[in-house]
Amino acid sequence: SLNDAVAIACPSEDPSRPARFDLGFTAGTLRLVSGHPNPDQSGIAGFSGTMRWAGEEPQRGCGARGNLRIGRSSWTSRVRIVSPFRDFGRQWDTQLTSAGPVDMSLRLAAADADLDLRQFDLTDLDLRTAASSIVIHLGPPRGIVPVRIDGGVSWIELKVPDGTCFTVARNHRLGILDVAGGRLEDGERRDGR
């Protein structure tokens, strides 16, 4: 069973600059839900919310400008050391709010993840995954939002609101990419709504 909720608070006084959310998760079930900021948080960017888990307590930390890191990885510059099968079966349930724009970087391996990002004002989303099943719910964009997905042996479902314009490009071999309306071949692009 999950532990009692633990508060997360990474405020930023500059709501014009995106706060960054880095998440590293392996071997288990992940649920992330974005929510509306409380009225007393209006104008304060960064992240606030709660987190519950089963298994070893996740590492968490706040950085400049309200940035938030959650995961078992080492967080030194560009090197991340992950032990993917040590805590197989663990579970994280996180609810976060942000009053400002959000950049997200997700690293998921051997994960079953449901990511509801509809309430975030996303400016960028970078997902790297392996051997995972992932559903991502996106809200209506306020502009062009690059979504980059790099992964293998994974099933990823991206849900966007009806009427949202998008462009999908396939840049790698050894995979299947199905988009509403059919399969995309290597190097092919498709625009949709």
Describe the model.
With 193 residues, the protein is mainly beta. The protein contains no helices and 15 strands. β4 (59-62) and β5 form a beta hairpin. The protein is globular and about 45 Å long. It starts with 5 loop residues before the first strand and ends with a strand.
Question: Which stretches are poorly predicted, pLDDT < 50 over at least 5 residues?
Answer: 73-87
Bin the strand percentage: over 45%
Average pLDDT score: 82
Alpha carbon gyration radius = 17 Å
Topology:
Layout: E1 6-12, E2 19-35, E3 45-54, E4 59-62, E5 68-71, E6 90-97, E7 101-116, E8 121-130, E9 133-137, E10 147-152, E11 155-159, E12 166-169, E13 177-179, E14 182-184, E15 189-192
Parallel strand pairs: 2-5, 2-6, 2-7, 7-8, 7-9, 8-10, 9-11
Antiparallel strand pairs: 1-3, 3-6, 4-5, 12-15, 13-14
Labels describing this entry:
193 residues; mainly beta; globular
Question: In a few lines, what is going on in this structure?
Answer:
The protein has 193 residues and is mostly beta strands.
